[in-house]
Amino acid sequence: MPALKKRKISHEKLVEKDEVSDDASSSSEDVSPSQNENTAPKTFKDLGLIPQLCEACDALGYKAPTAIQLESIPLALQNRDLIGLAETGSGKTAAFALPILQALMDKPQPFFGLVLAPTRELAYQISEAFEALGSVISVRTVVLVGGMDMVSQSIAIGKRPHIIVATPGRLLDHLENTKGFSLRTLKYLVMDEADRLLDMDFGPLITKILKVLPRERRTFLFSATMSSKVEGLQRASLSNPLRVSVSSNKYQTVATLLQYYLFIPHKHKDVHLIWLLNEHVGQSVIIFTRTVHETMRLTILSRALGFGAIALHGQLSQSARLGALGKFRARSRDILISTDVAARGLDIPSVDLVLNYDLAADSKTHIHRIGRTARAGKSGKAISLVSQYDVEVWLRIEKALDRKLPEYKVEKEEVMILSERVGEAQRQAIAELKELDEKKNGRGSVFIFMIFNSSRHYVLSTLSAAIVAL
């Protein structure tokens, strides 16, 4: 790929630099945030959006454009490919949805835009955002994700929606098997959480999808953490893209997010977790775990101690997963205990606290986890439990964040008062999981698998989706 010219762009003045970068990895033009606060656009109308979309933003309570929206929307309206990098909770969905909807109003057609997302829950959320912002023009969307009936999805495709929101695997299924379904006339492609979509897991699927899409289209890549690898951008078939970044580094978090760690012995993690839940009783909390087993165990443990917890993990049916999210959003449950299926992109209003019971496997996932709180200008808190087995992983996370995080102060004696009650609840959780194992013919699907947990022991566990319905 040839080196490209770089230029700095602001809304006040456009200045071209005639220098050609010597770095072969320079595959995009850089956009710097507007420097002059007095001349920077302050409203959605100032960004060039039509009155109908401005009214939709007002109706949804969008008072003013966020930083990523300020920088990316005017450029997208100029028919440019974009690579957008901004903190989680900064309004990236509206940043790509609004320009697409404006272009759709100008030239309406079926299968106008395709949005790819790495998780099913994020796909549904993006579809809801398009429908809300496009309600004034009666935009039609379809969600194509795994775990749902393909026939009903095919019927929805037959109604020729304007916007398709999909996970890569299910989209490819329909492209190969649904008669008459083609994206040859597609005008816009969006990859949300693009770094995840361009990695090795989704790479082969993305490559197949790109082969059947028209090259004459606009392409947007958005994420909170972004890789700038040349081969990744080539796979995405971007055309002279602009890179819009409103983060000081690729692992930036919002200023309203307070982060802490709690260094404790592994055997006391449950006690400290329950103490933290007591300290934040009545608040909305997401607890992240590494395995399905821990998710289920902690859900039973928390319920035994009187907390309104609900589980979310990949072994649940899609309807159960959406049901769990719905209960948490509606605050009929204050605590969501989840694997990393809830780490990326989900916009859940007013999450007060994120607790990392198990540390994330990598720094990117950590950023996405803690981004579930402190969204849209609100404040939030994230606390990570670090045991003797997690020190190396935690040091890598701090290095990626480029700062040392403060330790969350606790009174050890006050915490350990709970040890007897927690111990009893632990035994109850083990008994219930064992009972679920024995009721293989009972309600729900039973899953048997081997788990390598953080205490470095193999555990044979059997889990049922039935508990999530409680």
UniProtKB/TrEMBL annotation:
**All residue ranges annotated as the DEAD-box RNA helicase Q domain in the record:** 42-70
- Enzyme class, spelled out: hydrolase
Ranges of compositional bias, category Basic residues: 1-10
Q: Region Disordered: start and end of each range?
A: 1-42
Tell me the ranges covered by the Helicase ATP-binding domain, including all copies: 73-244
UniProt GO MF annotations: ATP binding; hydrolase activity; RNA binding; RNA helicase activity
Residue stretches making up the Helicase C-terminal domain: 256-416
Q: For this protein, what is the EC number?
A: 3.6.4.13
Give the family from UniProt: Belongs to the DEAD box helicase family. DDX47/RRP3 subfamily.
Relate the assembly described in the record. Answer: Interacts with the SSU processome.
* PANTHER family to which the protein is assigned, alphabetical: ATP-DEPENDENT RNA HELICASE RHLE-RELATED, RNA HELICASE
General function of this protein: ATP-dependent rRNA helicase required for pre-ribosomal RNA processing. Involved in the maturation of the 35S-pre-rRNA and to its cleavage to mature 18S rRNA.
Stated name of the protein: ATP-dependent rRNA helicase RRP3
Q: Which organism is it from?
A: Talaromyces atroroseus
